[in-house]
Amino acid sequence: MSERTLVHLLRHGEVHNPDKVLYGRLDGFHLSERGRAMAQVVADHLHGRDITHLVSSPLIRAQETMAPLAERLGLPVTLDERVLEATNRFEGQQVSLANLLRPKNLAKMHNITKPSWGEPYVEIVERMSAAVDAARAAGTGHEAVIVSHQLPIWMMRSAAEGRRLWHDPRSRECSLASVTTIAFDGREIASVSYAEPARHLISDATASVGA
Q1: What domains can be seen in the chain, in order of their start residue?
Q2: Tens digit of pLDDT for each residue in 164-196?
Q3: 210: left (phi over 0), alpha (psi -120 to 50) or beta
Q4: pLDDT band for position 209 (50/70/90)?
Q5: Cβ distance 68 to 96 under 8 Å?
Q6: What values do phi and psi take at 86, rounded to 5?
Q7: Given this model, what pLDDT does residue 1 score?
Q8: How many CA atoms lie within 13 A of 75 on its CB side?
Q9: CA distances, 25 to each of 176, 188, 198, 203 (Å)
Q10: Where does this protein have coiled-coil stretches (predicted)?
Q11: Among 36, 48, 50, 210, whose CB has the most other CB atoms within 10 angstroms?
């Protein structure tokens, strides 16, 4: 019989971002107070599982989300650039409809299927698939956790479920501090599941910009 391995894709918690900047890969965006509470809730949710391997995006918000779980499990955290947020040509700008409709920004949105304003979806899937497979191999027969960002996680889930990659960003099922779990039988994906352990903390939370 093939070995069963679970890889949990954890989106980071809420970020302190009062100016609503699309922060993308910009450094220095820490979790908010509520985001830190989300990280603790997720640590409670995952503590006690058969987790043997931890991976995080190098961005500080991801590392801060992983910290409580790593401390409870007493495991080291591997930083992996393959699970970074996607690149975006709007990075650093304030997110608003008026800003997106400016001529210089509209010119960047000529192809929604690639997308023309950022890292191609197929490239996100390629790097995320490689990172997930490495985590699966490291945690074979057990469980691994990767802290990443909304778009990379959604791309990985879409690919795993055989969905088209281009989409309306509002349709992503990947809330703050959510857990998307990919179950493997051997090296093959067997199923995908989704949980929102910190849902009670995000009911009135402002949307996280830059994911």
Answers
A1: 4-202 (3.40.50.1240)
A2: 999 999 999 999 999 999 999 999 999 999 999
A3: left
A4: low
A5: no
A6: -70, 150
A7: 59
A8: 22
A9: 17, 31, 24, 26
A10: none
A11: 210
Strand ranges in the chain using DSSP code E only, listed in sequence order? 4-11, 51-56, 77-79, 143-148, 179-185, 188-195
108 CB-contact burial (10 Å; exposed 0-12 / middle 13-18 / buried 19+): middle
Which residues make beta-bridge pairs with 189? 184
Alpha helix locations (H) across 59-149?
60-73, 97-100, 103-106, 121-138
Identity of the residue numbered 35:
G
CA distance 29 to 170: 23
The mean pLDDT value for 46-52 works out to 96
Q: Return the residue matching tokens 């043997």.
A: 52
**Could you say which DSSP state residue 31 is in?**
B
Cβ atoms 187, 136 nearer than 8 A:
yes
Q: How far apart are the first and last CA of the chain?
A: 39
Distances (CA, A) of 110 to 94, 114, 121: 20, 10, 15
Residue whose pair of structure tokens reads 């698939």 in the numeric block = 129
